[in-house]
Amino acid sequence: MKKTLTIKWMSWLSLTLFMFSCKKDSTDGFLSPALKYTNPSIKIAVGASLIQSGAMVTDESTKPLVFTIDAIHYEDGKIADKLMNYKVDTYFWKAEYTGKEKTVEELNKKRTKVNRPAVDINPDNGNIVIYPEATDTTLFTKGKYIIDVRVKNSGGERVLKGALTIDVSYALPYTYRLSGLDGNITGIDVTFDRQENTGNKILVYVLKKDGSPVDPKTLFGYDYSNTPGVTDLKDWHNLGLNNPTKYTEFPDHLELEIAGFPLPFVSGQVLRIDMYNNGDINGGYFNYWFDMSILKEGIWKITIQLKYN
């Protein structure tokens, strides 16, 4: 049985953690010279999802430790002032985002809006975070950045020069990840085509092996509910916050009108699409499921090419 992948924000993402304070130990502490990140150089595509470096390896240093970003440099060594001063409006979550929320008001009860540095750090463990809202390409340009991190504890403080290098590119205006296949199907090829830059519409085409269209009435959403009498379909009828606002089936495609983008409404999250057919398309039951998001408005055409023997 398939299990829903539940996306949870790490527990430190709450406003109170940025009010961290502590007293020094009455005895001398130890601050290791071997502090480091497990992966000191990472490639990232900003603007789609929450990016995290992972916690710093502290090598028996006395706790608590306090981590701050001391400086961010360009590859040539100059200070990246624009990036260091770049802040974004983002959200810290107080309760789990489920994707079943019906209104923005319901969402806002679960989260707190905050203004944070686009390149942020968890003061408890050194985990460097880049928020999905960091999309201003004039302030966060492509290229490599070197981050110096300051670490303090009761044993003193140290600036780790070049603690982390990030190689920045820009995310596509959509995300897609195949999650699974079952039955008489060997694969799917999914393409996203932004046909117009303005608008709030999605066109969905599913194609047979020979390229002929599938009638959307022959595909059904998989039910994830474990509660009798309650459905939890992961299909094109259920895109979050009462989307789509209009659902129209044509013999060869779906036309979905959306209240607005990004889709889903919460930056950094994804939608699960999970569809099956009982055999009238290719002679046997098949099921495919994938995760996706669309980050920019427009008229979007999504084409799903079925692959089977």
TrEMBL record:
Keywords assigned: Signal
Secretion signal, residue range per the UniProt entry: 1-23
Database matches in Pfam families: DUF5007
InterPro entries xrefs: DUF5007
Annotated protein name in UniProt: DUF5007 domain-containing protein
